[in-house]
Specification:
alpha/beta; 8 strands; about 45% helix; binds 1,3-dihydroxyacetonephosphate
């Protein structure tokens, strides 16, 4: 597939995999994806597996991401993890503002933008998640919701920082439900977000930013989703927990 931007496909393992299970998974991925260079491949294990997975992927093209981080650098923040701690394990990407955290940890757009700035300060690339609920889509509010999230979560970033930021469009109703947005729905939302980036930053930034689609991406729907002009990769949950299915998503996207 000849795309303007290099595809980036990331596996968000969420709260799954012990260290032993994580190592099994990356061993399988290394075999399945040996010599694959066409797509940027990222795995995002839970914090507890970062150290071992980091060592296991040293001799591969797989890159490491974390699922969250603190907005603070150091100090009295019980249970939090700072960007500099992620850097110790050669983490390059960090998912911020996943809808599960927006919903259950009440993360606000303002907090997510502070985390994005902290990530950039540590040279980590944030994967900033946005997406509407089913009720919002049915009420015709998708664009309004996306605009509020994009403007709020990316507030204060410079053009250079924005260029190094990845956006994941994840309609909440498609996450873990087996329901995927139609290719048209995905393309429309991605194009809307890119248009917004042009207004907030400029056309060049908008053209460079990679926008992933997330929500029940599977080997069977990856090709069609990735064929859309503004879909530049995927953030995969359930189907990233098995080497075969995650690798097939990547192979089917090329
Ligand atoms: P599923 O692929 O399991 O729907 O999860 C999507 C997601 O939330 C990735 O961040």
């Amino acid at each position: 597939m000849n795309k303007e931007r290099k595809l980036i496909i990331a596996g968000n393992w969420k709260m799954n995999k012990t260290v032993a299970e994580a190592l099994d998974l990356v061993r399988g991925l290394k075999i399945e994806l040996a010599n694959q260079k066409e797509v940027d491949v990222v795995v995002c294990p839970p914090f507890t597996a970062l150290s071992e997975v980091s060592k296991a992927i040293l001799d591969s093209n797989i890159r490491l991401g974390a699922q969250n981080m603190s907005e603070h650098n150091v100090g009295a923040h019980t249970g939090e993890i700072a960007a500099v701690m992620l850097k110790e394990f050669s983490v390059r990407y960090v998912i911020l503002g996943h809808s599960e955290r927006r919903q259950h940890q009440k993360e606000s757009n303002a907090l997510i933008s502070r985390k994005a700035l902290a990530a950039h300060a540590a040279s980590l690339k944030p994967i900033v998640c946005v997406g509407e609920t089913l009720a919002e889509r049915e009420a015709g509010e998708t664009e309004k919701v996306l605009e509020t999230q994009v403007r709020g979560s990316l507030a204060g970033l410079t053009k250079d920082q924005m260029t190094e930021t990845i956006i994941a469009y994840e309609p909440v109703w498609a996450i873990g439900t087996g329901k995927t947005a139609t290719t048209q729905q995905a393309q429309e939302a991605h194009a809307f977000i890119r248009g917004l980036l042009a207004k907030m930053f400029d056309e060049t930034v908008a053209r460079r930013v990679r926008i992933q689609y997330g929500g029940s991406v599977k080997p069977s729907n990856a090709r069609e989703l990735m064929s859309q002009p503004d879909v530049d990769g995927a953030l995969v949950g359930g189907a990233s927990l098995e080497a075969r299915s995650f690798a097939e998503i990547i192979k089917n996207s090329i």
